[in-house]
TrEMBL record:
Provenance organism: Araneus ventricosus
Keywords attached to this entry: Membrane, Transmembrane, Transmembrane helix
Identification of the protein by name: Transmembrane protein 223
Gene giving rise to this polypeptide: tmem223
Keyword hit for Disulfide bond: no
The keyword Transmembrane helix appears for this protein: yes
GO biological process: nervous system development
Any single Pfam family the record assigns to this protein: TMEM70
GO annotations of cellular component type: mitochondrion
Amino acid sequence: MSISSKFSWPTIKRVVLCKSSVCFQYKPLSKIVSSNYFPTEKITSLKKDTLLYSLEKTKLIRYLTIYGIAQFGICTVLGLNIFMSLKDTKPSRDTGTQSNEKSWRDVNLGASKHRIIASLACFSLGFLTAFICYSLPSRIVKTVTLCKGGNVASFVTYGPFGKTIQLKVPLQQMSCMMTREQAKSYLPIKIKNRWFYYLLDCKGEFHQPALFDVTVGARNWKF
């Protein structure tokens, strides 16, 4: 009887914290490469920038910017027209003698306070629409690249008229709020000291899913 058959040697395993699924995964060394596992020592030894995610929506962002500007212009013109065109007219009847059901007929919409309120409402609606059309593209991620060394990720987001904005963030200062399997439409990523979430459209292409899950797609519990 050989020594190997007499003694059963335990399988050597290593522990890897898969932050994207928020669980510990135990993998044998013989299965070091799989679809849902990436060796952590290869992350810190990256010799070049690696593209993790990409999305193309330049044409849609241009249309969205044009729509925001047009909506702001239309609401501004409408507000000015309301303020300048409405005339201050007096009620045709004595409002004190009529019933409450017909009192709305004698409301003087041409009074200064009504004209100012209506004009400000139109201007605010146009400004809010333009602000959303300007701010939303800056939170839609176009590409995500893991920089050389594996400690910093480069985000490229959209800007007005389809322009791009680049942002480099250390992995310790970001947190993915859910896994790729849980996300149905957008994958939200929180970046420290930044308002709102950065959104990754699930319709985009994940070029390195396993590497993405243990780096950018990881959950940081300090947030």
